[in-house]
């Protein structure tokens, strides 16, 4: 039996039934479907659209079905296509005509839109919590190694000395923006579409505001055609998730480089690495590599839904069933990555001496010399050119600028004096960068304290 038997004289072909089903993956929406149905039926009873006793009977049986699903005793049936029809058919089997009243004044179109909004809203709350945990882990490691100096990179080449903690806090900023995007997405999706029917609303005197309040929606949708055909909230969530993966992939790339023998800045705990089936000495950063690889998967899910929606006329079209698998896969992927990353970061070990040695190359302080010249009233472009000539001379001679004597230095840059030799010190270089947002110890400590306070508030 299907819910549209009255129109058809023949049963669906078995292959069509298999082709059409979504219960194999959308059964995870059961709690949200039941929650929405309870709020809807309760409203129908209060508005006297159905008898209140019938509403109570339906609600009681919906709670029984939820318990059966959670205990694993409920039998899902592929013939009933999706989670909505499986639950409704169970009601029909148990309550007969009383159960049939559940679908009064609603369509599967507004029902699924309600379920997915409820589901994404809950998942956003969980993912936001995981982002906070990862930010906390990064801040904790930044505080632990707040004094450690490393080379900062541009174009994957050593650029200037920075604090390792400053580098980690850059990812905290990224993850904070990710959390803000999820919060914005949650605000926009938190409108109730239920009551929009298939596309035109209903002639029955329902109270949508009561249902919205019961389900903790901020408001109700204002156009029934848009409400049932809108998937912007899914696209927006997948977009925010894709940006999260941009940041996780960049962090992964840094970690993969840092643990390489050529770099050896950090070491990951054995519990977050794997070995080789052939080479006994290998210790591979598989969590970081898999995260980098799964990024393309999440991007693909976004593109899949964008492509699915791009040519659809109003209103609902069955194409929209294809929104769920990309959505579910993205949520599962993001949650798993964030869950494993937080403890991996917490257990990272830093080789302070290797990092500092890499940051102590005097050429990395070339900008410090240029800015010292600026402080002596030399125009920056002129200072840049003078220091560039010094660097070129030293590299041609295969010598370090800090090994020059004062006469040699003044021959190349007449404005220099003895003070210039103190500039080739990574600790002084870092300490001198004491403007807001820069890498000095003072500024980084302020940021660590800021984030510790901020994250305590969010918890």
Provide a concise account of the structure shown:
The protein is mainly alpha-helical and about 450 residues long. The chain is about 60% helix and about 5% strand.
CATH superfamily of the largest domain: Fumarase/aspartase (Central domain)
Rg on CA atoms, Å: 30 Å
- What is the overall shape? elongated
The chain-level mean pLDDT equals 96
Structural class: mainly alpha
| CATH-derived architecture of the largest domain | Up-down Bundle
What is the fold named in CATH at topology level of the largest domain?
A: Fumarase C, Chain A, domain 2
Question: According to CATH, what is the class of the largest domain?
Answer: Mainly Alpha
| Count of separate DSSP helical elements | 19
Element order: H for helix, E for strand = HHHHHHHEEHEHEHHEHHEHHHHHH
SSE diagram, text form:
Layout: H1 14-20, H2 23-26, H3 30-46, H4 52-71, H5 83-95, H6 97-100, H7 108-144, E1 149-154, E2 157-163, H8 164-189, E3 191-192, H9 208-214, E4 219-220, H10 224-229, H11 232-258, E5 266-267, H12 286-309, H13 324-346, E6 349-350, H14 352-359, H15 366-375, H16 380-397, H17 406-412, H18 426-432, H19 441-458
Parallel strand pairs: 3-4
Antiparallel strand pairs: 1-2, 5-6
Structural features, described:
- A two-stranded antiparallel sheet has the order 1-2. It has a two-stranded parallel ribbon with strand order 3-4.
- Helix 11 runs antiparallel to helix 12 (286-309).
- It is 62% helix and 5% strand.
- With 459 residues, the protein is mainly alpha-helical.
């Amino acid at each position: 039996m299907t819910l549209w038997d009255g129109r058809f004289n023949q049963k669906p072909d078995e292959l069509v039934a298999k082709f059409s089903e979504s219960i194999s993956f959308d059964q995870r929406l059961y709690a949200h479907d039941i929650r929405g149905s309870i709020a809807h039926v309760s409203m129908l009873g209060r508005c006297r659209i159905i008898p209140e006793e019938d509403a109570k009977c339906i609600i009681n049986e919906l709670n029984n079905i939820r318990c059966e699903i959670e205990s694993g005793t409920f039998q899902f049936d592929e013939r009933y296509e999706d989670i909505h029809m499986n639950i409704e058919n169970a009601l029909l089997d148990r309550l007969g005509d009383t159960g049939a009243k559940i679908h009064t004044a609603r369509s599967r179109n507004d029902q699924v839109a309600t379920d997915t909004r409820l589901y994404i809203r809950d998942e956003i709350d969980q993912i936001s919590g995981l982002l906070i945990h990862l930010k906390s882990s990064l801040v904790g490691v930044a505080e632990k190694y707040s004094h450690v100096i490393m080379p900062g990179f541009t174009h994957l080449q050593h650029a200037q000395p920075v604090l390792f903690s400053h580098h980690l806090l850059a990812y905290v900023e990224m993850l904070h923006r990710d959390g803000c995007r999820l919060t914005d997405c949650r605000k926009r999706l938190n409108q109730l579409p239920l009551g929009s029917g298939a596309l035109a609303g209903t002639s029955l005197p329902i109270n949508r505001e009561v249902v919205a309040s019961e389900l903790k929606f901020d408001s109700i949708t204002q156009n029934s055609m848009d409400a049932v055909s809108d998937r912007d909230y899914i696209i927006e969530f997948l977009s925010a998730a894709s940006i999260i993966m941009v940041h996780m992939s960049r962090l992964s790339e840094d970690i993969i480089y840092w643990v390489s023998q050529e770099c050896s800045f950090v070491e990951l705990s054995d519990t977050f690495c794997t070995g080789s089936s052939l080479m006994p000495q290998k210790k591979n950063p598989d969590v970081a590599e898999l995260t980098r690889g799964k990024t393309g998967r999440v991007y693909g899910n976004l593109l899949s839904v964008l492509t699915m929606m791009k040519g659809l006329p109003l209103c609902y079209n069955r194409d929209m069933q294809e929104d769920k698998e990309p959505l579910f896969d993205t949520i599962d992927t993001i949650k798993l990555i964030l869950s494993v990353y937080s403890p991996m970061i917490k257990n990272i070990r830093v080789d302070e001496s290797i990092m500092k040695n890499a940051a102590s190359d005097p050429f990395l302080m070339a900008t410090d010399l240029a800015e010292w010249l600026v402080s002596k009233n030399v125009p920056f472009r002129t200072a840049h050119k003078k220091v560039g000539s010094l660097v070129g001379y030293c590299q041609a001679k295969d010598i370090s600028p800090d090994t020059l004597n004062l006469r040699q230095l003044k021959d190349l840059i007449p404005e220099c004096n003895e003070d210039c030799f103190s500039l080739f010190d990574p600790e002084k270089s870092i300490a001198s960068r004491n403007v807001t947002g820069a890498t000095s110890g003072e500024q980084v400590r302020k940021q660590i304290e800021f984030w510790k306070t901020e994250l305590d508030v969010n918890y």
